C-alpha cells in the first residue's frame, strides 16, 4: 500500500471533483445536445486535453511553451498514417515513401505508435530545451513549432500539407474523450502533487535555491516535458479519431494562442485553472461567434462583425495579464474552495 | 566573384531590415523587459495610414511617408499607455503574453473595421527601380534601406550617448530604480523608448510597403517574428546585439536561399529557425549578452 501525503490525498479529491464536472457536462451534452453541439463539446474536450498537456510543463516548470500544437499535430498525423486503410491511402497519398501507403493497423496499436513517436521526438528536443530558461526556452519552442509546420507543409507526399488528410476511421465518440480527459486530469494532478512536481515547482520559484537543495532541475523538467508531449499526442489522436480528416493548419499559431489563452485565463499553476479556462473560453467564444454572424437580438439587427472572436480572445489575454497575472484560480485548486485549510 | 558580391549585398539589405525591426524591439526590452510582439501591428498601422491617405487622394510621397511614421509613433505611445503600463513591473513572460494578446486584438480590429483582404497601396512604387553598377544588379530600395539603417544606428547612438534623456534611457536599462531616484520621470523614459520603437517601426513600414505594395491585417507578423529571433540571437536587450542579430539573420537567410537546392525551397524558414535554435543552445542568452550567473541580483 502506497502512503499518500496530505497534498496527494487532497489532489485525488480535487481530481475526483473535476472528473465529476467533466462527466456532468459530457452526459448533459450526450442527452440534450444536437449533433452540432456534440461536435462542439468534443472539440472543447480535445482542447482541454491539450491545455492539460501544456499545464504539466508550463504550470510546473513555468517556462512558456509555444510548441504544444506541433506535438499535437505529430501525434495526430502519426496515428492517422497508421490507422487509415490501405485503399484510401493509395488514393490520397499515391507518392508516399517508405511503404507508408502499404499497411494499416488497428486503432489501439496506431495510437500506441503515435504516442511513442511523439514521446521520443519530445525527449530528443527536450534534452536541449530544459537547459534554457525564460525567453530563450520560449524562442526554441517557437522554432520547433515553425519547423514542424514547415515539414507538414513541405512533405505533401506524406502529410498532404494544407489539404485534408482524409479517410481516418471514426473510432472515438464523446464518451471516449470524456474518459480520456478525466484520465489526463488525474495524471496531471498526481504529477503536480508528486515529489517530482513539488520539486519542479520549487525550482520555478527559485532555481538556484532549489538546485542548492539537491533538486535535479534538468531531469525534472525533461520528465514534465515528455509527459506533457504524451498528453498532447493523445489530444492529437482524439482529434484525428473523431473528425476523420486533418490538415496542417489547425496545428499552428491560431491554435497555439487559443489554448494558451485558455490556460492563462484559468491560471497555469493549477489543474483546476486549466479546466476552468478551457470551458470558459470554449463556451464563451461560441457565444461571441454567434454575435459575429450578425444576429437579431432584442429586436436590434446587429451588423456582421468578423474578427470579434479574435478581439475577445486577445482582450482576455491582455486583461488577465493586467488584472490577475496568475489567472482566475491563482494557486488554488478546486478542493481548497470547499475545505478550509487547518494548518 | 560578382555573384558573391551580389549575394553579399542582398544579405546586407535583408539584414538591414531585420536590424531596423530588431532595434525597435530591443530598445523596449532593454528598459522594461517586454518582448513587444505588437510591434508588427504598429507596422500595419503605418500601412493602413497609407491606405487612408490614398482614400483622401493625397499622393504627395513626403506626406504619405511622414504620415505613416507619425501614425506608427502615436500608435506605439498609445499601446504603452493603454496596454503595457499595467504589466510594467511584471516578469518577461507576463509581458510577452500581454504583447501577444495586444497583437491578436489589433489584427482582428483591422480585420473587422478595414478588411480581411489585402489592400493595394501604389503610392510608394516610385522608390523601387533597378540599378546596375559594374555588373551588379541591385534594387534602389535595397540601397535606401541599408542607408536608412546606418543613419538610424548612428542617430540612435548619438541620442543615447549625447543627450540627458538618452543617458536616462541607457541607465534605465541597468537600474531603473536608481534612475528614478535621480529625479527623472519614469513615464518619460518609457514614453521615449516606445516613441523610438514606433519611429523605427514606421521607417520599416515604408520599406515593407514599398516592396509588397499591399497591406493586410497580418502584414507585420512575419517580419517581427524574424526580428524577434534576431534580437534573441544577438542577445536580448542589447542594442548592438540586435543589430548584429539582424545582419546575421539576413546572412543566414540569403545563404539558405542560395545554397539550398530548389526542391527544398519551402524549407528555408525551417532551416533558419533550426540555426537560431542551435545558436541559442550554444549561447542561451544570445551572442552579445553579458554573462550573468543565475541568482545574481541585477
Which helices and strands appear, and what pairs or packs with what?
The complex is a heterodimer of chains A (343) and B (298).
Chain A: H1 6-32, H2 35-61, H3 68-83, H4 86-92, H5 107-129, H6 134-154, H7 156-159, H8 174-193, H9 195-205, H10 207-212, H11 217-243, H12 253-266, H13 271-292, E1 296-297, E2 300-301, H14 308-323
Helix pairs in contact in A: 1-8, 2-8, 2-11, 2-12, 2-13, 3-5, 3-6, 3-11, 5-11, 8-9, 8-11, 9-11, 12-13, 12-14, 13-14
Chain B: H1 2-32, H2 39-55, H3 61-84, H4 92-113, E1 119-120, E2 130-133, E3 136-139, H5 140-162, H6 164-174, H7 176-181, H8 186-212, E4 214-215, H9 221-234, H10 239-259, H11 268-282
Antiparallel strand pairs in B: 1-4, 2-3
Helix pairs in contact in B: 1-5, 1-6, 1-8, 1-9, 1-10, 2-3, 2-8, 3-8, 5-6, 5-8, 6-8, 9-10, 9-11, 10-11
Low-confidence stretches of chain B are none
Shape by Cα distribution of chain B = globular
Strand content of chain A: under 5%
Give the low-pLDDT segments of chain A: none
**Order of helical and strand elements of chain A:** HHHHHHHHHHHHHEEH
Count of discrete structural domains of chain B: 1
Overall average residue pLDDT of chain A: 82
Count of individual beta strands of chain A:
2
Envelope shape of chain A: globular
The biggest beta sheet of chain A is recorded as: 2 strands, antiparallel
Q: Could you tell me the strand content of chain B as a percent range?
A: under 5%
Distance between the termini of chain B: 49 Å
Round the Cα radius of gyration of chain B to an integer and report it.
19 Å
Helical/strand content category of chain B: mainly alpha
How many β strands of chain B by DSSP? 4
- Kindly give the count of domains of chain A: 1
Global mean pLDDT of chain B: 82
Q: How is the quaternary structure best described?
A: heterodimer
Amino acid at each position: 500500500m502506497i502512503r499518500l501525503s496530505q497534498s496527494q490525498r487532497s489532489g485525488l479529491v480535487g481530481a475526483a471533483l473535476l472528473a465529476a464536472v467533466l462527466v456532468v457536462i459530457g452526459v448533459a451534452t450526450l442527452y440534450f445536445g444536437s449533433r452540432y453541439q456534440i461536435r462542439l463539446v468534443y472539440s472543447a474536450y480535445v482542447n482541454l486535453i491539450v491545455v492539460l498537456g501544456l499545464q504539466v510543463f508550463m504550470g510546473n516548470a513555468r517556462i512558456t511553451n509555444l510548441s504544444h500544437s506541433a506535438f499535437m499535430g505529430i501525434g495526430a498525423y502519426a496515428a492517422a498514417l497508421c490507422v487509415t486503410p490501405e485503399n484510401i491511402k493509395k488514393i490520397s497519398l499515391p507518392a508516399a515513401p517508405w511503404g507508408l501507403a502499404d499497411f494499416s493497423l488497428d486503432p489501439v496499436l496506431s495510437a500506441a505508435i503515435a504516442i511513442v513517436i511523439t514521446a521520443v521526438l519530445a525527449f530528443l528536443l527536450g534534452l536541449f530545451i530544459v537547459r534554457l530558461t525564460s525567453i530563450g526556452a520560449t524562442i526554441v519552442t517557437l522554432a520547433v513549432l515553425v519547423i514542424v509546420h514547415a515539414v507538414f507543409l513541405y512533405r505533401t507526399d506524406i502529410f498532404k500539407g494544407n489539404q485534408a488528410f482524409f479517410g481516418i476511421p471514426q473510432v472515438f465518440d464523446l464518451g471516449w474523450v470524456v474518459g480520456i480527459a478525466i484520465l489526463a486530469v488525474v495524471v496531471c494532478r498526481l504529477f503536480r502533487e508528486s515529489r517530482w512536481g513539488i520539486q519542479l515547482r520549487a525550482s520555478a520559484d527559485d532555481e538556484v535555491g532549489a538546485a542548492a537543495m539537491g533538486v535535479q532541475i534538468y531531469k525534472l523538467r525533461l520528465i514534465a516535458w515528455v509527459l506533457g508531449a504524451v498528453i498532447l499526442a493523445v489530444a492529437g489522436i482524439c482529434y484525428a479519431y473523431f473528425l476523420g480528416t486533418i490538415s496542417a493548419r489547425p496545428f499552428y499559431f491560431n491554435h497555439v494562442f487559443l489554448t494558451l489563452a485558455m490556460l492563462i485565463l484559468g491560471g497555469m499553476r493549477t489543474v483546476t485553472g486549466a479546466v476552468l479556462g478551457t470551458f470558459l473560453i470554449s463556451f464563451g467564444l461560441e457565444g461571441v461567434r454567434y454575435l459575429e454572424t450578425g444576429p437579431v437580438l432584442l429586436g436590434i439587427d446587429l451588423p456582421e462583425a468578423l474578427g470579434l472572436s479574435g478581439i475577445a480572445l486577445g482582450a482576455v489575454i491582455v486583461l488577465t495579464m493586467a488584472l490577475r497575472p496568475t489567472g482566475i484560480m491563482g494557486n488554488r485548486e478546486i478542493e481548497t474552495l470547499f475545505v478550509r485549510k487547518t494548518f | 566573384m560578382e555573384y558573391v558580391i551580389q549575394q553579399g549585398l542582398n544579405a546586407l539589405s535583408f539584414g538591414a531590415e531585420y536590424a531596423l525591426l530588431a532595434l525597435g524591439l530591443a530598445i523596449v526590452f532593454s528598459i522594461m523587459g517586454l518582448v513587444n510582439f505588437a510591434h508588427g501591428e504598429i507596422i500595419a498601422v503605418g500601412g493602413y495610414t497609407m491606405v487612408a491617405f490614398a482614400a483622401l487622394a493625397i499622393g504627395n510621397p513626403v506626406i504619405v511617408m511622414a504620415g505613416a511614421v507619425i501614425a506608427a509613433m502615436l500608435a506605439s505611445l498609445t499601446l504603452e499607455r493603454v496596454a503595457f503600463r499595467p504589466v510594467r513591473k511584471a516578469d518577461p513572460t507576463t509581458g510577452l503574453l500581454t504583447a501577444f494578446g495586444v497583437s491578436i486584438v489589433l489584427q482582428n480590429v483591422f480585420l473587422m473595421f478595414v478588411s480581411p483582404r489585402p489592400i493595394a497601396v501604389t503610392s510608394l512604387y516610385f522608390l523601387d527601380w533597378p540599378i546596375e553598377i559594374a555588373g551588379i544588379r541591385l534594387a534602389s530600395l535595397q540601397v535606401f534601406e541599408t542607408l536608412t539603417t546606418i543613419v538610424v544606428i548612428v542617430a540612435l547612438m548619438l541620442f543615447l550617448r549625447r543627450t540627458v534623456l538618452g543617458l536616462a534611457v541607457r541607465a534605465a536599462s541597468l537600474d531603473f530604480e536608481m534612475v528614478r531616484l535621480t529625479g527623472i520621470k519614469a513615464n518619460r523614459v518609457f514614453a521615449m523608448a516606445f516613441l523610438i520603437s514606433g519611429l523605427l517601426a514606421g521607417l520599416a513600414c515604408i520599406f515593407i510597403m514599398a516592396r509588397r505594395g499591399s497591406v493586410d491585417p497580418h502584414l507585420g507578423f512575419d517580419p517581427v517574428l524574424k526580428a524577434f529571433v534576431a534580437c534573441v540571437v544577438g542577445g536580448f536587450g542589447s542594442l548592438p546585439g540586435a543589430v548584429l542579430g539582424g545582419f546575421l539573420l539576413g546572412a543566414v537567410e540569403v545563404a539558405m536561399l542560395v545554397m539550398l537546392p530548389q526542391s527544398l525551397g519551402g524549407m528555408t524558414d525551417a532551416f533558419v529557425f533550426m540555426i537560431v535554435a542551435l545558436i541559442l543552445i550554444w549561447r542561451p542568452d544570445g551572442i552579445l549578452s553579458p554573462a550573468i550567473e543565475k541568482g545574481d541580483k541585477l
